[in-house]
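Subject: for your reference before the review

Hello V.,

The reviewers asked for a structural picture of the protein, and I figured it would be easier to keep everything in one thread rather than splitting it across files. Below is the amino acid sequence we used in the manuscript, unchanged from the supplementary table.
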Amino acid sequence: MLDTSQLFGFALTWAAVRAQTQAGRWQPVLPRVYATFTGPLPRDSRIAAALLYAGPEAVLSHGTAAQIWGMRLESPGPVHVTVPYHCSAVSQPPLVVVHRSRAFRHIAVDGQPPLTSRADTAVDLAVAESTARDAQQLLTELVTSRRVTAEQVRAQLVERPPWRYRRALEQAVYRVDSGVESMLEELYAVDVEVAHGLPSARWQAPFRVDGRTLFEDAVYDELDIPLTVRLDGRSHLEPDVALRDRRRDNAAELAGRSRLVFGWRELSTRPCTAAFEVAAVLHRNGWHGPLQHCPKCPAQRS
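And here is what came back from the structure prediction:
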């Protein structure tokens, strides 16, 4: 993959370049960029072409950087690059999407190929989402899956605040700091607790069971209410995990604790029902707060 400045550096002329392309031995890829082979362009060649086209300061960013960092699977979509704000390069659909940054010198990291940092990549992906809620969920997924750390994202939000969704992204990092460790837990915290005005649970509460320390997802002991909320993901179908859950259930029963269990299906499709059930147990144990209605709540529920 070569651009015209490199070709002319080899003492080639425009006539020679035209002769190679007209003969079908080379192919134009982007303005001033040529592939010195024929046939489909592999992903690596499209990346090299995009960087050559965008200029020597360009770095991979957004979805393309996310693929290199392991945040997303490789896709056949356009290559995303970020350039300094003054750069003249413009997007060339469908091969290249060009982004501009006023903070360009702060966002790149050394690498081959050059790309934006993990934190900047994660925030760029979140900011590109269509809603603040989608941005929160994406950032939470990236942090809880250990693709980027909360500390890295928090520093980026302070040093280079995004142009939108800043508060939503700060809330996502705060919830992870508070103990949220999965997308299912984030869904419970936002769509069940926050959306319905329920008190915040304490996350990852330790309990001794059979001489071992096990952790419950969410408890309300700080309200003096012995309620445990367990959020069961796919791992809870594994035999060892299912046995652990049964032992925790028995220990909770012997300790006189109330228990509610929710999975992804209930929280993603019926969060209002989960909120109603949690509120019922909290009210039964002395909580006097009102259950607020969210936009998804059935009109007849009181």
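For the response letter, the relevant points are probably these. The CA atoms of residues 6 and 86 lie 23 Å apart. DSSP finds 13 helices and twelve strands in the chain.

Happy to draft the paragraph if you're swamped.

O.
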